[in-house]
UniProtKB/TrEMBL annotation:
CDD domains: ABC_Mj1267_LivG_branched
InterPro entries on file: AAA+_ATPase, ABC_AA/LPS_Transport, ABC_transporter-like_ATP-bd, BCA_ABC_TP_C, P-loop_NTPase
Gene Ontology terms describing biological process: D-alanine transmembrane transport; L-alanine transport; L-isoleucine import across plasma membrane; L-valine import across plasma membrane
Gene3D superfamilies: P-loop containing nucleotide triphosphate hydrolases (3.40.50.300)
GO molecular function list: ATP binding; ATP hydrolysis activity; L-isoleucine transmembrane transporter activity; L-phenylalanine transmembrane transporter activity; L-valine transmembrane transporter activity
Name assigned to this protein: Amino acid/amide ABC transporter ATP-binding protein 1 (HAAT family)
GO terms under cellular component: plasma membrane
Record flagged with keyword Ribonucleoprotein: no
Lineage of producing organism: Bacteria, Pseudomonadati, Pseudomonadota, Betaproteobacteria, Burkholderiales
Length: 250
């Protein structure tokens, strides 16, 4: 069953076709990844799905409802939440209070939101940092906080925008089980990621965007060997050059 169905979604900014006629279907309970070179349209696609940007054409159906162009807080209430590449916590507030902001979507009473924040902190490995001001967190801590705030809204679908960016190899290794754990708890996850090691490690299915268009999809192994994908990342003619280099070397 599809939890999210995007049909023929397009959005231009002036002359730039950021997203062009993109259609995709995200199965309930899946962990999939959206990859593509810089400027491919990945973040714009997230913004179109989550309601931060209105599409020129196309539709977004989430959990059986048409949410095209719907305000982000209404979609979040239905269970669709996204994170942002640039993490902006309330710096002077504690980690607990920051996570509670997300929890308030489902919990009207402050005491309940603060309590829910503690449970979520456990899930992302922030339990020991709950009383720290957010500004005292490391980059890796801030990434976990962003994840926690999103998780606290109790999403059915979580759109993760580069939660591993800026982390060192050890921090990435530490974060992978956190993301996998979220998916295993029943949350459907779609992640934008440049760290290919993480994509290969986590994703069951990969979507590839280039210049606003979906150019490939499939298993991580198949898309990374797709000539069109190699060209999109490394430039025209690369796939043929690589093939020739391989033939010459045998
Ligand atoms: N608000 C905007 N106004 C004008 N142009 C925009 C706007 N948002 C995105 N763009 C343009 O749309 C294109 C797609 O950008 P987008 O940020 O979606 O790509 P991306 O794949 O997320 O890139 P990256 O991997 O570098 O984050 C780019 O050419 C970008 O400059």
């Amino acid at each position: 069953m599809s939890l999210l169905t995007v049909s023929h979604l397009s959005r231009s900014f002036g002359g730039v076709k950021a997203v062009q006629d993109v259609s995709m279907s995200i199965p309930l309970g899946s962990l999939t990844a959206l990859i593509g070179p810089n400027g491919a349209g990945k973040t714009t696609l997230f913004s179109l799905i989550s309601g931060f940007t209105t599409p020129d054409t196309g539709t977004v159906i989430f959990d059986g409802k048409d949410i095209t162009g719907q305000a982000p807080h209404l979609s979040a209430k239905l269970g669709l939440t996204r994170t942002f590449q640039i993490v902006q916590p309330f710096a002077a507030q504690t980690v607990r209070e920051n996570i509670a902001v997300g929890a308030h979507l489902q919990h009207a009473r402050r005491v309940d939101a603060l309590h829910a924040a503690e449970t979520v902190a456990e899930r992302v490995g922030l339990a020991s940092q709950l009383d720290k001001p957010a500004k005292d967190l490391t980059v890796a801590g801030r990434k976990r906080l962003e994840l926690a705030r999103a998780l606290a809204t109790q999403p059915k679908l979580l759109l993760l925008d580069e939660v591993l960016a800026g982390l060192n190899p050890q921090e990435i290794q530490d974060m992978l089980p956190v993301v996998r754990g979220i998916a295993e708890s029943g949350v459907t996850v779609l992640l934008i990621e440049h760290v290919m090691q993480a994509v290969m490690n986590l994703a069951q299915h990969v979507w590839v965007l280039a210049q606003g268009q979906l150019i490939a999809e499939g298993s991580p192994e198949s898309v990374t060997q797709d000539p069109q994908v190699i060209e999109a990342y490394l430039g025209q003619g690369t796939a043929a050059r690589l093939r020739k280099a391989k033939q010459d070397s045998v």
